[in-house]
Amino acid sequence: MTQIFNFSAGPAVLPKEVLAQAAAEMLDWHGSGMSVMEMSHRGPEFMSIYKAAERDLRELLAVPDNYKILFMQGGGLSQNALIPLNLLGHKPEGATIDFIHTGSWSAKSIKEAGKYAKVNTAASNTTAVPAQADWQLTADAAYLHMCTNETIDGVEYQPDFNDTRFKDRVLVADMSSHILSRVIDVAKYGVIFAGAQKNIGPAGVTIVIIRDDLLGKALPVCPSAFDFKLVADNESMYNTPPTYGIYIAGLVFQWLKQQGGVAEMERRAKAKAELLYAALDVDDFYQNRVAPANRSRMNVPFYLKDESKNEAFLAGAKARGLLQLKGHKSVGGMRASIYNAMPIEGVQALVDYLNEFAGR
Amino acid sequence: MTQIFNFSAGPAVLPKEVLAQAAAEMLDWHGSGMSVMEMSHRGPEFMSIYKAAERDLRELLAVPDNYKILFMQGGGLSQNALIPLNLLGHKPEGATIDFIHTGSWSAKSIKEAGKYAKVNTAASNTTAVPAQADWQLTADAAYLHMCTNETIDGVEYQPDFNDTRFKDRVLVADMSSHILSRVIDVAKYGVIFAGAQKNIGPAGVTIVIIRDDLLGKALPVCPSAFDFKLVADNESMYNTPPTYGIYIAGLVFQWLKQQGGVAEMERRAKAKAELLYAALDVDDFYQNRVAPANRSRMNVPFYLKDESKNEAFLAGAKARGLLQLKGHKSVGGMRASIYNAMPIEGVQALVDYLNEFAGR
């Protein structure tokens, strides 16, 4: 097989070492005679896998003891409903949720939350995150929801926690496409959630990290299988969890630790992103439309100035083993997703091709 | 590795041929240079996997054209909420759902549905399904829900479709633990659902087969990610589906076709179940408490008359490679789950051990 580099936005590239180990263990995990797929989720073999995955993720993100880590199903998209369904039970009718709108994913979150509460878009800009001082926050909002990396729009940011308005405010962050790529202070958030299929593992696993005082506030119509408190009280086994996906996620967590953890991933992400944006910025042959301060290190959308060359660009890329560079259909153009498992050699190969195609 | 036989109730044994193929293709699916886990769900590679899986399942169960097959997340348990959330939108306040209570799973369904509607338990018995003529059905019920194989209680049955009360009644069947093990007439049902982790594939995939006139009736509070109509309209890709689980399910479907399809699985299931129940019935050393007409071909719970020997029984079984025979904690005793992927040699090995342990 030819060396390929897979720039898919998700499901996305995984570490080769993880896939090789999964292949080797497929028919017989550690002499058990069983595949991980065949294990009872409550048996000692899978419980050891689960506990190691939870422990390693807790270590990687330095998750404080008063936070629960849930391994759920449904994807990041489902959390747009499950977050209000789980957090609004203590609020009277008429609760308001504040949102920061920075792209397609926060837009979806706003729309879905409108089914359960009043929504207030406190700030809105999909190419440059408005100054935090200008956010129009509601005094008694149930919580503030933000998507700190917009996978489609390529906008990444971190809130300024020195903002005195954040005191006692519950922050909910959708970190689906940049979790584990930068050091974060979990204690500043009420809920962090992430679909697995970017930096964690296969599609079908969703991570929820929640401060324990926020459990037990579900609306009566919240399905039991998705009630955070029931999931937490049963160590993610209130119903059968996506066992194989959790196993792969656990292997990714081990790989991350071997590589040096999240700080090392952040160092590499900066280096990869700087390399790629520099090539895009040489002249106006390519364009990235995001304000430099908010450019994502994970998802790099770009446009050819002459869009009639799009098909030729993609065909040439494919011929060089540079795959899945087409942009999301809603915004067009190109997109290179450069998650943790993308080696810098892949970014360098893309940069070489960008220069070659531009005739530099 | 020693030959083992895995009697887990789920996640459960998978065909060795399927696991071997998955291992061989793990790093490079069909020369794509990618693992199936790394593929965009909307790319041509995964779309071909998805379409083949859907087509093969449709063929195996002879699903009529006016039924949609959905590949969802959340597990069978989540459907206890998602079914009422999706079917009650056209009913005025005060809708009633009829249930047949035959064990732990239908009991859970009844409890959960009570969050969304009035529930009527039309019949209740966890060891012998009441005669259908005695079911106390509601004239204008939104639908009738039944679990046609109770995984924990080992009760299996099929409704009598000659019952004139069934005309125009919407039947919802939880077939999680016996789907694809017997020939069914899909056209008699409104909705069939099944968690994958018994006869289909890995945990984390849920199959929903729904008659198309039942789509578009969701309650406003139904999360979009679980709205059957949105899922159907987007070919199960309204949000990112559990791609790797669908791939494994597709391999299982291919295996089933190679083995002779559902009719052949039914023939084997009968043979395996007869062999096992005959050994349990020799004398009163072992007991199965289910009425013979309702004994499950998939899940065979049994008790030692002298329960002080339970630990010795399980230890001896494990020493012979007969794994995961402990009964569910809620009912105790033993349970042998003998799904499609369990060869008759495994059942024979268990029977030999049953006889040996009983001193026959």
UniProtKB/TrEMBL annotation, chains A, B:
Q: How is the cofactor bound?
A: Binds 1 pyridoxal phosphate per subunit.
- Just give the chief location class: cytoplasm
Enzyme class, first EC level, given as a word: transferase
Enumerate the subcellular locations listed in this protein's record, separating them with semicolons.
Cytoplasm
Q: In which pathway does it act?
A: Cofactor biosynthesis; pyridoxine 5'-phosphate biosynthesis; pyridoxine 5'-phosphate from D-erythrose 4-phosphate: step 3/5; Amino-acid biosynthesis; L-serine biosynthesis; L-serine from 3-phospho-D-glycerate: step 2/3
Decide whether keyword Transferase is in the record.
Answer: yes
The reply on keyword RNA-binding is no
UniProt EC number:
2.6.1.52
- Gene Ontology molecular functions: O-phospho-L-serine:2-oxoglutarate aminotransferase activity; pyridoxal phosphate binding
Q: Which GO terms describe its biological process?
A: L-serine biosynthetic process; pyridoxine biosynthetic process
> Domain Aminotransferase class V spans what residues?
4-350
NCBIfam families given in the database record: PRK05355.1 (NF003764), serC_1 (TIGR01364)
* Family under the similarity heading: Belongs to the class-V pyridoxal-phosphate-dependent aminotransferase family. SerC subfamily.
The UniProt subunit note reads as follows:
Homodimer.
Q: What is the protein name given in its UniProt record? A: Phosphoserine aminotransferase
User: What is the native source organism of this protein?
Assistant: Duganella rivi
